[in-house]
Amino acid sequence: MLESLFLNLGQHDSLSDDEQSLLGNLMTGERSFAAGQDIVASGSRPAYSTLILDGLAARYKVLADGGRQFTSLQIPGDFVDLYAFLLKTMDHGVIALSPCRVILADHSKLRSITERAPHLTRLLWLDTLIDGAIHREWIVAMGRRSKVSHLAHLFCELFVRLQVVKRTNGMSFHLPVSQAELADVLGLSVVHMNRVISALRNSGVIAWANHTVTILDWQKLQQIAEFDPTYLSMTREPR
Amino acid sequence: MLESLFLNLGQHDSLSDDEQSLLGNLMTGERSFAAGQDIVASGSRPAYSTLILDGLAARYKVLADGGRQFTSLQIPGDFVDLYAFLLKTMDHGVIALSPCRVILADHSKLRSITERAPHLTRLLWLDTLIDGAIHREWIVAMGRRSKVSHLAHLFCELFVRLQVVKRTNGMSFHLPVSQAELADVLGLSVVHMNRVISALRNSGVIAWANHTVTILDWQKLQQIAEFDPTYLSMTREPR
DNA sequence: CGTCGGGTTGAGTCCATTCAACTTCGGTGG
DNA sequence: CCACCGAAGTTGAATGGACTCAACCCGACG
C-alpha cells in the first residue's frame, strides 16, 4: 500500500527492509477526501503529516482580492505537509484536486525517527529538499519563461514525477484539473490560460482531452520547456 | 563570529551550549568573495555547504535566451546551499551581490551531526524548510500579487529577516543591489522595475537611496504587501 | 428538454516590454 | 582642475502580451 512512497524515497538511495518496516509503522490512519475538500487547513497546527496514496492535491494561498495561487502539485507518494512536523503552523492550505486517499504520519513518530534512524531521517529531509528544488524551478518559470514554455515545463515535470511512481500510461498521464485550476498554477487569467493551452496544442507536442495529457513529441516538449531534470535528484546514490 | 547563525537558528528554539560548540566545530575555513563572483557554481558537487557571515548573495538560474532569475536572497546567518548536503548536485548557481565573507561546513561533519545530534539536525532541517516557505511566498507574489505589492512584500520580508540577525538600523537596511538585479528577482524588465520602484516611492511608504532602504510607513507597507510573517516561523518553541 | 460548469472565441483596454534617448554621478586621466 | 567616460537610473513612445467583459458552444446531468 505504501508502494508509491517506497518508489519515491527509494529512487534517491536504497531503502533497507528495516527502514521499510519503520515507514510501515509510521504511516497509520487512512482517510479519504473528495475533490475540492481541504486536506489541511491554513492556520492549523496539525499533529501529523499527510501522505497521498491516490489522487492529486495542491498547496495554495488565497489573497485578499480572492486571487488563488497554487504553490505545488502533489501526486501519490508525496507528503503534502511533511514540513509541518517542524514548521508547526500551516501558513497555507492543501486542497484535493481529485478524490484523494491519504495516510497519516504522527509527528511524535517522526520525531522518534529523527532520534533513532539517521539515514531514514536524511531521506525524509531530502524529500522536503526536492520540494524546495521544485519551488525554485517554478519561480524561474514564473519569472523568466514564456507562458507556453512554463506550461510545457510543468508537463515535463509532472510526467517525470508520475513515471517514478508508475502513474503514467505510455506517454500519457491523468491530469484531473480544470483550466481554471491550471490558471491558478501559472498565475494567469482563465481566458489567457486557454489560449496558452491552445498554442501548445497547435504546436503539436501534446494532446489534452478527457483529463488526460498525451505527450506527442517528448523531445520537442523538452526543448520548448528547456527541461533539465537535474533538480529532481533522480539518481540513486548514498545520501 | 557565528553570532548571526546562532541568532538565526536560535530564534526558532533554544540552542544548548553543546549545540553551539558543535556548530563552532562544524564551521571552518573562512573565505571571501567579491561582488559578482560565483560562490557556488551551477552543476558542481560541493563537499561542503556555505554560510554567509557578511554580505548579500543570491541563488539564480540562467535560461537559454540569457534571462536570469534569482530564486532567493541570502543574508548573514543563512546557509546558501545547505541542501547540497543531500541533493549532491547543484542545479543552479549562487552569486555574491556584494562582497561576501563566508564560512564552510563539511558535508562529512554535517552527516555526523545527523548521526549524533538529532535536535540540532531538526534545527538545520528546519532552516531548509523555512527556505521552502519563502519560496512558496515568492511563487504567490509572482503569480497573484501586483508588481508594487510584490516589491513591498520583498521589502517586508528582508526587513524582518535582517532584524533577526541585527542588520537593520532603525527602520533602514542596507540593500546593495542595482535595479537591474532587482528586476531579476521580480522577473521584470529593468525599465518596468524602475517604474514599479517609482510607484512605491511615490506612495510614500519607502525611501531608497545610496543602496539604503528606509521604511517610512511600516503599517501601510505591510498593507500594500498583505504581509503576514507566519511563514518565517519566528516563534521560539520546541522543535 | 433545460440548466450548469467548463471550454472557446472576439473585442477593447491596460500592463509590461522593447528600443531609444537623456541624465546623474563617481571615477579616472589629461 | 576639469573633461571625459561608463554604469546606473529615469523618461518617452510604440509594440505586443495579458487582462476583462461578454458571448457562445458543448456535453453531462437532472
TrEMBL record, chains A, B:
InterPro entries xref list: cNMP-bd_dom, cNMP-bd_dom_sf, HTH_CRP, RmlC-like_jellyroll, WH-like_DNA-bd_sf, WH_DNA-bd_sf
Keyword vocabulary terms for this entry: DNA-binding, Transcription, Transcription regulation
Pfam families registered for this protein in UniProt: cNMP_binding, HTH_Crp_2
Entry protein name: Transcriptional regulator, Fnr-type
HTH crp-type domain ranges (all copies): 145-219
Highest classification ranks of the organism: Bacteria, Pseudomonadati, Pseudomonadota, Alphaproteobacteria, Hyphomicrobiales
GO terms under biological process: regulation of DNA-templated transcription
GO molecular function: DNA binding
